[in-house]
């Protein structure tokens, strides 16, 4: 195989590798955002439904629904952390691929730099975690309040 064909082959392979990594990052971030939005919507609907006067739910039903909200939002926070690890892995693959196969691209990336999100208190994944933490806190307070009202009414 001539040097020119080998270089074109390597360049094409790297381009595909690079694109696949960014496609995977996009898919992970889309799944994370969709899952977060679904759970926020479901949690909000359950909270509204649970405390609407027209819907007569027993204390047991309300307790079950609030515990369900708490547990699903905890799972979302875990999912957010896990997807971040996978995103970081794909970013490291891209960076290493650039070092080995695309020196010019690597030089540009090094020159421009990257926003350091690891220490960012308000990065996107943390903002989602904060929202879900607030839903957990709110649901927990409602759970305490409902059970407190029940105990005091007897």
Topology:
Elements: H1 3-50, H2 59-101, H3 103-112, H4 124-153
Helix pairs in contact: 1-2, 1-4, 2-3, 2-4
What does this molecule look like?
- This protein is an all-alpha fold.
- It has one domain.
- The chain has 4 helices and no strands.
- α1 runs parallel beside α4 and α2 packs antiparallel against α4.
- The chain is elongated and about 75 Å long.
- The model has no long low-confidence stretch (mean pLDDT 85).
> What can be said about the biggest beta sheet?
none
User: What series of H and E elements makes up the topology?
Assistant: HHHH
Task: Kindly provide the radius of gyration, computed on alpha-carbon positions and rounded to a whole number of angstroms.
Answer: 24 Å
Task: Quickly give the structural class.
Answer: mainly alpha
Q: Which residues form runs of ≥5 with pLDDT under 50?
A: none
Number of domains: 1
Strand content: under 5%
Number of helices: 4
Shape: elongated
Mean pLDDT: 85
Terminal CA distance: 87 Å
* Total number of strands: 0
Helix content: over 70%
């Amino acid at each position: 195989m001539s040097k020119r064909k080998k270089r074109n082959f390597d360049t094409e392979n790297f381009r595909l590798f690079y694109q696949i990594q960014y496609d995977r990052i996009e898919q992970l971030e889309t799944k994370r955002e969709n899952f977060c939005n679904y759970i926020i919507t479901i949690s909000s609907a359950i909270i509204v439904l649970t405390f609407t006067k027209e819907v007569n739910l027993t204390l047991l039903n309300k307790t079950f629904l609030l515990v369900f909200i708490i547990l699903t939002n905890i799972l979302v926070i875990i999912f957010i952390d896990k997807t971040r690890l996978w995103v970081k892995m794909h970013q490291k693959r891209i960076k290493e691929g650039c070092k080995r196969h695309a020196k010019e691209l690597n030089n540009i990336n090094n020159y421009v730099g990257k926003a350091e999100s690891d220490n960012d208190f308000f990065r996107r994944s943390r903002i989602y975690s904060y929202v879900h933490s607030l839903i957990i806190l709110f649901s927990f307070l409602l759970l305490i309040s409902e059970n407190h009202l029940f105990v005091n009414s007897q």
